[in-house]
Amino acid sequence: ATEIFDARPSAFLVKPVHEKKLYKTLDKVIDEIRREKRDVLSIPNAGGVININVCDILYLESNRHELILHLNNEKQHVWMKLDEMLMQLPDYFLRIHQSFAVNANYIQKFGAMNVILMGGTELSISRSRYKKAKEGFFDYLESK
Fold first, then answer.
1. What's the average model confidence in pLDDT over 78-101?
2. Helix (H, G, I), strand (E, B) or coil at 52
3. Cβ proximity of 103 and 109 under 8 Å
4. What pLDDT, in 10s, does the model give residues 72-88?
5. In a 10 Å sphere around its CB, with 0-12 CB exposed, 13-18 middle and 19+ buried, how is residue 101 labelled?
6. Cα Rg for the chain, rounded, in angstroms?
7. What is the DSSP string of 4-49?
8. Which residues, listed in sequence order, are joined to residue 57 by a DSSP beta bridge?
């Protein structure tokens, strides 16, 4: 019985299954699948296209036209400007510096001069971007 939680069940249907409940459950599962697909970012790369789950991105680092996506367990390098990438990402990605944007979901501490991400990574906040980044972070916290 405990193994069922490894499968991430969406609902439990008890026999005899009522038709309305079955259709309601199927609609819920279809919505979950659509939401998960929407959260996948397809990025053109030299070798083709890479698909990245948006929630796995901790932060983005720009080095001229090369963009480094720092993920939960790896890094991906793509040839793209940071501004172009941010247009494709949700509002909870905050631009904190000319070269950095962070996923607000992973911010452990938002300070006056830096942010500390879960896991200990520390990134500087530029003075010119501090006010807008702080407002974006508080908006994010309010929406949670």
1. 93
2. strand
3. no
4. 889 999 998 999 999 98
5. buried
6. 19
7. GGGG--S---PSSPPHHHHHHHHHHHHHHHHHHHHTEEEEEETTEE
8. 71
